[in-house]
Description:
Blueprint: E1 2-7, H1 11-26, E2 30-31, E3 40-45, H2 50-66, E4 73-78, H3 82-91, E5 94-95, H4 104-110, H5 125-134, E6 137-140, H6 143-149, E7 153-156, H7 162-166, E8 177-181, E9 183-184, H8 195-198, E10 203-204, H9 207-219, E11 224-228, H10 246-259, E12 265-269, H11 278-286, E13 293-295, H12 303-308, H13 315-328, E14 333-340, H14 347-360, E15 364-369, H15 387-410, E16 416-424, E17 430-435, E18 440-444, E19 454-463, E20 466-471
Parallel strand pairs: 1-2, 1-3, 3-4, 4-5, 8-11, 11-12, 13-14, 14-15, 18-20
Antiparallel strand pairs: 6-7, 9-10, 16-17, 16-19, 17-18, 19-20
Helix pairs in contact: 4-5, 9-10, 10-11, 11-13, 14-15
Bound molecules: iron/sulfur cluster.
Amino acid sequence: MKYHLVTLGCQMNKSDSERIATVVEDLGYVVTDHEEEADLIGIVACSVRQAAIDRVYSKIHRWNQLKRDKNLLTFVTGCILPTDREKFLKLFDLCFQISELPELPAMIRQYGVPTPLSSGVAHDPAEDAARLEAEGFAEVEEDGHKAIAGRPVMMKQPETRIAGFWDIRPHYQSRSEAFIPIQNGCDKFCTFCAVPYTRGREISRPSADILAEVRRLVEQGYRSITLLGQNVNSYGRDKPNEEMRFAELLEEIGRYGDACGERFWLYFTSPHPRDMQDEVLEVIARYHCLAKQIHLPVQSGDNKLLIRMNRNHSVQDYRRIVAAIRNFLPTATLFTDIIVGFSGETDEQFENTVKLMEDVEFDMAFIARYSPRPGAASSRWEDDVSPDVKKARMHRLSEILRAHSVSHNARMLGDVYPVLVTGKGRKEGFMSGLTEGKINIRFASEDESLVGQIVDVEITRTGPFAVEGRLCE
Ligand code: SF4
């Protein structure tokens, strides 16, 4: 029996999918890229843009058509707004929060679906039902849902079960780069973002589990490990007397990493400027394995807009953090996220973002044109910056970024950099990789056995957003 999984959205959803793969493969399902072949189809939804939600609807309509010819079970999880959840319950067989993933096998059995490994193994549906009920699930019978699936749906009461989810060992997609979720949810309520409504409030994963996962990955030869969360640097704040703070977590990893004898780079994404303390930067400076690369979203260079976005920090705060990064981590690359054309953004406010970009000289910026996100507070406000103005503003920031990238990369010429080889390059006869600062690099080689290794490369040519080099002996 086969399963097909569609993942929409951000790195957090991709990381969640690695745990979903473990659960369904442990049931004996084998992955397929072709939905027509699948007996179980799931989608990890994203509510960041309407386009992503529309994709979920178009997919499920197609999958429900496939049901005419075969026995097919469908599920949806991920970032789902309460309003969409109501509709999804009528369209999918199963709709669950990602924290409820450990219950997926029992939910599938409740449908009377024989999973591959259950053939010959007796599962008592009454037992499963009793257990699910005891664990807070309730049986919901929706007329619309029954009309499509012909079976009742099990929906759990809202209750956090994220610990069981974190205990699942993921099927990592790569053998050299891995992401480790260290928290779930967000307490910040930025007005352009729906995450606090889809994933709930911030919950920190136990540090012992995180450290164990880091060790396991390092022992398996992983070279790039990223701690993942909506707000990584507020890690531990929800458990003040119980858990480490983020700087302490980094310190533990740094101590282990530098002593273990393996070479790897430890990243984290994304931190919030409001929680960015010098202590974190001091710790990164102390340990080789803590990568000298910071991704710190700023979103806007204007104080009034930052207030309207509910970011809870000022441009001056952000500049102070940048100065601290330059001070403690002089070789670090600095990445950011920026939104242009946010509701109410004036020309003058945009010019303040231009000024910030010119002053800070980011190595990379992910620049997005604002579009209202369903469920976010700003979706109720007028989207009053025209598409043409948004496009022009984005273009202007992109040009500044490009110029800075050209001049930063030019400074790399002639130097030797350790590079994590990530795969074949797009150019024939080249391999590609990333420096510790996540600068794209390619070098002449066709040796695919280098993938996953850190090699030394001398930079021979530079350009915007990428450099070229020669593999050192
Ligand atoms: S910090 Fe803001 S943008 Fe990031 S997940 Fe939380 S609410 Fe969304």
